Amino acid sequence: MSSAIPQVYDSPVFRMACQQFDLVADFLDIPASARDRLKFPKRSVSVSMPVRRDDGSVTTFMGYRVQHHLTLGPTKGGIRFHPDVTLGEVAALAMWMSWKCALTGLPYGGAKGGVCVNPRELSTTELERLTRRYTQELIPFIGPQIDIPAPDMGTNEQTMAWIMDTYSLQSGHCVPAVVTGKPVGLGGSLGRREATGRGVAYLVSRAMDTLGISANGATAVVQGYGNVGGIAASTMARQGIKIIAVSDAYGGLYNPKGIDLAKLDEHVAKTRSVVGFEGAEAISNEQLLVTPCDVLVPAAMERQITAENAAKIQCRILAEGANGPTTPEADAIIAQRPEIFVIPDILCNAGGVVVSYFEWVQDLQSFFWDEGEVMSKLYRILEQAFVQTVNFAKKRNIGMRFAALSLGIQRVHEAKQMRGLFP
What we know:
This protein is of the alpha/beta class. The protein is built from 14 helices and twelve strands. The strands form two sheets. A seven-stranded mixed β-sheet has the order 9-8-7-6-10-11-12. Helix 7 links the parallel strand 6 and strand 7. It is globular, with a radius of gyration of 21 Å.
């Protein structure tokens, strides 16, 4: 048995990640002596950041960075700006990043960062001050061979540019490899911004091939019409799939005939929300998740599919664009529904970290690839991970999530065994 969860990390999301790990560790028969080393983060940092506001006042924000394990290389993971960020949530996301990187064969441990802030309530100059202060506090703990941040919810290419600039000023020279997801003009990779959403759509297509579902006439529902959900939706639409419902943090839309995504994108660009779009009727988040469809893409926050609604969802493919959208209790219910094919989060949304890896490699060697080469390499890695997960699931007669987690956790466990325990 593993030890109790340290109080500093205790949260619903971290307990969920630990519950998933414990089930897989039992399945893999991992020795008790190795479990805490695999599960609990290697390092976590909490920082308070006083930031001068545009009106001259000062607000202090809390920020976090968690590095889950250092066994396979530097750590890798996004930074999110969100009002509900906690250290426990960040630790859970870092753990999932570890299994994701191992599943896709990347030489990284998992990491994650976050600042407890609503970025919409800050001006651009205030966001820059906050980002630079956060970076300054983390400088001893990040670097191209230590920990490489990337964008996540509430952050973007501009955020990464500020982080890179702040770190480079301290280093005395330009260090583009300290972050990924940067603007292309500062050493970013072509295709990085679209990588997660395109990866989701690619794996949906592979699942449809597996199930014998034709894209023409198929329908999809996307929860979370942001960078990941929006690009996944547009990519699926180009494949012939009809997008019949979408949502964001403020509300949802439904049109059984299909939503005009080009017009919706224009509306979102003006209003920063899908709410009020005239080409569809309003729908609640709860209704959206149980809307009948071929493909359901939860691409918003964690813990959206729960014991309360898991029996009600009506899809053939559950493609998890978000991290941790399905609780273990919901998993148990979905496991009794063989008509649902699950593409688990650590596989489904891995496109972002894979192309982040490509960006890091390009920055280190100062040699850049065109977008076609980037996407070709991405799809090759996703294909390999998909096939390995499907085959392992069939061989061991287990679900896709269990298979993906087993492959990722086993690889980290084996690496720790090979390196040994010091001293």
